[in-house]
Amino acid sequence: MLSIAWAPLYAHPLPANHRFPMLKYELLPEQLLREGIVPESAFFLPQPPPDEHILRVHAADYYQRLRTGQLTRPEERATGFPWSPALIMRETTILGGTLECARRARQHGVALNIAGGTHHAFRGRGEGFCLLNDQAAAAAYLLAQPELGVERVLIVDLDVHQGNGTASIFQHEPRVFTFSMHGARNYPHRKEQSDLDLALPDGTDDAAYLDLLRETLPRLLDQHRPDFVFYLSGVDVLATDKLGHLALSREGCRRRDEYVLGLCHQHQLPVVVCMGGGYSPRIADIVDAHVNTFRAAAALWG
């Protein structure tokens, strides 16, 4: 049974150059329903969480200034978004969706957030269209509740960009293993140190990418022995992506998702999936690649 977080908050007013990347959040649920991949009952409406869940991974001063519009101009430019109350509602709702996905995945095995994967948000700053780190907050929430029985978390970040904020937040937290497999020449130019970084050369294709993933992920499961997995399934690894330098096909991206989710299912590991990035010029390429992630989940847990 799939649970999917989605709220119609992602279309808040934005400058024209920001609207196209956000369009997928409107189109993806429509496509899932149109193709009959999930029923309407699979969707739930997330809510902003109590501040305590955000403050486990974000500095109180930063969060207060973010909420009240007190970021400096350089700080605001680094996020890529103009500040507005609607933006803060959007970001806190996305984070609340991933938190609720974590609760539901413990019950049903999997839950997916139509948005999320805001892995460039650091403890005390935002950057790269990320203001609050949703997967970090959800991982910290699980670890803070002993009754949930989650003692070790694995974050599998396969967005084309390194999960620098997530790596920084958990750099001194041995219970969270951060794994980022990303383009070596992609943003951010200054990388942080994840527990495992695999930086890929430009033009990495399906075969090379999938071979490396298959060599790596089973070993991480055996060594770290996580109780819970967060998966960032960015589709900016596609050859068509404007901001990526890798060369995966949509078929290769689909096989990537099937492999990661299949391993989680095989090991009976609850998994939360967040969509992450996707910037191909044709919106259909972005949506179709994201839809494949949901197809993979539905085939295993539907």
Nearest-integer average pLDDT = 95
Structural class: alpha/beta
Main beta sheet: 8 strands, parallel
Total tally of structural domains: 1
Radius of gyration: 17 Å
CATH architecture field: 3-Layer(aba) Sandwich
Output the CATH topology.
Arginase, Chain A
SSE order: EHHEHHHHEHEHEEHEHEH
Shape: globular
| Alpha-carbon distance between the two ends | 5 Å
Residue share in β-strands: 5-15%
Number of discrete helical segments = 11
Instruction: Detail the poorly predicted runs.
Output: none
The count of DSSP E runs of length 2 or more, i.e. the number of strands, is 8
| Residue share in helix | 40-55%
Strands of the widest sheet, in order across it, are 2-1-3-8-7-4-5-6
Q: What is the CATH homology-level superfamily?
A: Histone deacetylase domain
CATH class: Alpha Beta
GO molecular function: histone deacetylase activity; hydrolase activity
InterPro entries: HDAC_classIV, HDACs, His_deacetylse_dom, His_deacetylse_dom_sf, Ureohydrolase_dom_sf
GO biological process, one term: epigenetic regulation of gene expression
Keywords: Hydrolase
Q: Outline of this structure?
A:
One of its GO terms (biological process) is epigenetic regulation of gene expression. With 302 residues, the chain is an alpha/beta fold. 47% of the residues are buried.
Record the SSE blueprint.
Blueprint: E1 4-5, H1 16-22, H2 24-34, E2 43-44, H3 51-55, H4 60-67, H5 73-79, H6 85-108, E3 110-113, H7 134-143, E4 153-157, H8 164-169, E5 176-183, E6 196-200, H9 206-224, E7 228-232, H10 250-266, E8 271-274, H11 283-301
Parallel strand pairs: 1-2, 1-3, 3-8, 4-5, 4-7, 5-6, 7-8
Helix pairs in contact: 2-11, 6-7, 9-10, 10-11
